[in-house]
Hints:
Blueprint: H1 3-19, H2 24-38, H3 50-57, H4 61-73, E1 77-80, E2 84-87, H5 95-98, E3 111-112, H6 123-135, H7 138-144, H8 154-164, E4 176-179, H9 182-193, E5 199-203, H10 208-217, E6 220-224, H11 233-242, E7 245-250, H12 264-276, E8 280-284, H13 298-301, E9 306-311, E10 323-326, H14 332-343, H15 348-360, H16 362-381, E11 390-391, E12 398-402, H17 409-418, E13 421-422, E14 424-425, E15 439-443, H18 451-473
Parallel strand pairs: 3-13, 5-6, 5-7, 7-8, 8-9
Antiparallel strand pairs: 1-2, 4-10, 9-10, 11-12, 12-15, 14-15
Amino acid sequence: MAVKPIIDTVSILCEALRVGQGAKYKRLAEAMQVRIQEGSIEAGAKLPPHRSLADRLGVTIGTVSRAYAELERLGLVVARVGDGTFVRQRDLERKRDAGFSNFIEERPEQYDMSRNMHIPGAETNLLAQSLQALARDPRTLAEVALYTPDCGLPRYRQAGARWLAHGDFRPQAEQILCVNGGQHGLLCTLMALLRAGDTLVTEQLTYPGLITAARMLGIKLLGAAMDAEGLIPASLDELCRHNRVSAIYCTPTLQNPTTGVLSAQRREALVGVCREHNLLIIEDEAHAVLVADRPPPLSHYAPERTVLIGSLSKAVAAGLRVGYLHAPTPLLGRIAAALRASCWMATPLAMELASNWIESGVAQSLLQQQVVEIGRRKALVQALLDGLNYRTHAQCPHFWIEVPEPWRASDVAADLKMKNYLIATAEAFAVGRAAVPQFVRASVSNAAHDDQLLLQGFQALANSLRQGIAAYDE
Length: 474
């Protein structure tokens, strides 16, 4: 920002503090919002440092920090750790703001290792057979063309309960809500059970879809410390003692992106902290279904306060957009209201197909095929990563790979993108303003059935990472 705009801005902010109403940080944020929206503070401009502006205005650093945070919540500025705060402009967004682009937006010459996707298999032929059978069933066709109950028809809910069940966890159909995929289930849960301004704790590195949904709804995210298993209960407890926390969101099995799996003991400890601080638990099992011998979900340990999210997206067919929520009975009505507000009901045709596949065992068969194919692909490329520091799990579709110094994750991603290979960096998963670890996520679950492309992609990734090791050794 040039000197004169800074002087003009400070003068206007001083006037806003003198004559405005409400909290000081609100007055500052509102005055700056007007300047940004009218273009007086240009897109891409760097705002004054917190301390500098506080000294000029005669307010505390905390007041300026809260004002900047309010502007960030409104989507007007971008805070970059170590760089400062900038007025938002196109291409300035952080990876964690932009999220992942849709599949159709990628150029056809690019090989995408950045996202965990369902690997296409036998479901196409099975879908054709199911649709043909449905076409011969006029009674069911008429039913799926009508409105259904908010939570889904009883047989759809029963199929959902069957899909979510494993081990000692046996959900009741009456506690199931049918939704249009896991992301829709997450959004409905947040809309129903939290409000703008509420604080939600999640892992320091978490699912980007949560970050996007929380920002849209004005929910504040705090990142809890993690280890190889996942979220650390003591860190959650510490955050609760210093903040008014309403809920947590976590992925206990195949944590995204670190691949961690919480032990049964860790799950019990986590539930204990949630009960002590009266927290709602939102549990994501989108990837967990790939692990047959996984520990029971948090819903098993704390059924009175846990909303469990599951779907068919990673195991059966992503395009069906079929998901299920398992929630405590007292919360069903509130979530159902959010479901009605967002889409009225889960799509009956997709629910009919999914229910038939679950009841007949087709869904379980497709799940097993997915697990086998993930294992086959990982076995092909794992040797290419020898000598690199990474984490994974036998049933996880991706590797979480540390970037050797002095290389940075963004350097590796940029180098590979020039060669038409896409990977994800830790920044896309990061919560808050803490330092982002230098890791990348590379997945084997690309839709292309071309082992040569898969090998070439991981070879290019390994080569790029080893350039960093060579440079450091020199």
